[in-house]
Write a structure and sequence with these properties.
five-stranded antiparallel sheet; 5 strands; alpha+beta
Length: 146
């Protein structure tokens, strides 16, 4: 029996178990690295093609939270790839939709923020704030998919 600890990456370019063993590394490759290959490539392409340099911390933050949301979604059984773009302010942006609900995550030099939307009224059907940790991310993901 092999135990694998699924957690957010300790290094923003490493996902999954953190290399606890050879077996865990192989599981990470098959279940984590391969499924996220297109998302990581998209982020790398956006950063490389940006008109102005994107801060390393922005890319690192986006990759870290990508690994975290993927790990949480796997546990909840509801992963879907985000739409990934670069804002005019050089923020990396992830967006997910589920029915009338939408979550947008912004990764900029001042940190990560979210916008949660479930209608068109900015006062009563939208919420936003800083994305502080994995648990706030989990809460958003559960809200989006239920």
């Amino acid at each position: 029996m092999v135990a694998v600890r699924w957690a957010g990456p300790s290094d923003y370019r490493a996902f999954g178990s953190g290399g606890v063993s050879d077996a865990a590394n192989e599981l990470d490759r098959v279940f984590v690295s391969e499924p996220l290959k297109s998302e990581v490539s998209k982020i790398t392409e956006l950063v490389a093609s940006a008109a102005e340099p994107v801060a390393d911390s922005v890319e690192g933050s986006a990759l870290y939270f990508l690994g975290c949301v993927f790990a949480r979604a796997l546990k909840l059984g509801s992963w879907s790839s985000p739409h990934i773009t670069l804002s005019e302010n050089n923020e990396i942006v992830f967006e997910w939709w589920h029915g009338t609900k939408k979550i947008t995550l912004y990764f900029g030099e001042s940190g990560a923020e979210y916008i949660k939307v479930w209608g068109t009224d900015i006062e009563t059907e939208m919420d936003s704030g800083p994305l502080r940790d994995d648990w706030s991310l989990t809460s958003l993901w559960i809200w989006l998919n239920h």
